[in-house]
Design brief:
The complex is a heterodimer of chains A (115) and B (115). Chain A has 115 residues and is mainly β. In chain A, the strands form two sheets. In chain A, strands 2, 4, 5, 6, 9, 10 and 11 form a seven-stranded mixed sheet that branches. Classes of the chains: A mainly beta (115), B mainly beta (115).
């Protein structure tokens, strides 16, 4: 089956602009989560959505927001971009399987550069 | 507040030897614990997850992790290391007692397996 896809893969924006990143989960997965990875701060959790509802949330300012659609696709938006928002943004989709096990797959990420 | 620590920046192991990557955590409630691996040029991958139940959790690629409540540890182990296991490993913890479901990542441990 197709993996997690993220668009765009690369993006260059200017300080003060806003950006929207998109994530399409694996078919059948209803949970989508977002992460930020930078050399300085490492991996940080942004938020997780399940069936269009935000289920978990990280410690990011309100400039970072997300949503999930009825087809489980998700978007995250960053408004008023700052230089420090330059990062690799990763999306993952997950699902609980029959028998109680769990699977999660990450997308390749969107590399955002803020100038 | 929840926290997670990976005390070793790098672990070096000879191929065929057992490996351990250490992780300790601090939470106010009950922990949800995760291990992830990031291979060079292959993105982030989920290895395993502990929520409740058996203290020994089996994951992908022959890895397992042992939950030790008294020592607040969740060390990742593999009986026989492969050169292809060389990668960056991240431990993460979610506190079920609050923090909006934030997931905190460790700084990562670079595993190097030599032939």
């Amino acid at each position: 089956k197709a993996g997690v896809t993220q668009t765009p893969r690369y993006l260059i924006k200017t300080r003060g602009q806003q950006v929207t990143l998109s994530c399409s989960p694996i078919s059948g997965h209803r949970s989508v989560s977002w992460y930020q990875q930078t050399p300085g701060q490492g991996l940080q959790f942004l938020f997780e959505y399940f069936s269009e509802t935000q289920r978990n949330k990280g410690n990011f300012p309100g400039r970072f927001s997300g949503r999930q659609f009825s087809n489980s696709r998700s978007e995250m938006n960053v408004s008023t971009l700052e230089l420090g928002d330059s990062a690799l943004y990763l999306c993952a989709s997950s699902s609980r399987l029959a028998g109680g096990s769990y699977e999660q797959y990450f997308g390749p990420g969107t590399r955002l550069t803020v100038t | 507040a929840q926290s997670v620590a990976q005390p070793e920046d790098q672990v070096n192991v000879a191929e065929g030897n057992p490996l351990t990557v250490k992780c300790t955590y601090s939470v106010s409630g009950n922990p949800y614990l995760f291990w992830y691996v990031q291979y060079p040029n292959r993105g982030l991958q989920f290895l395993l997850k502990y929520i409740t139940g058996d203290n020994l959790v089996k994951g992908s690629y022959g890895f397992e992790a042992e939950f030790n409540k008294s020592q607040t540890s969740f060390h990742l182990k593999k009986p026989s290391a492969l050169v292809s296991d060389s990668a960056l490993y991240f431990c993460a913890v979610r506190d079920d007692g609050g923090s909006q479901g934030n997931l905190i990542f460790g700084k990562g441990t670079k595993l190097s397996v030599k032939p």
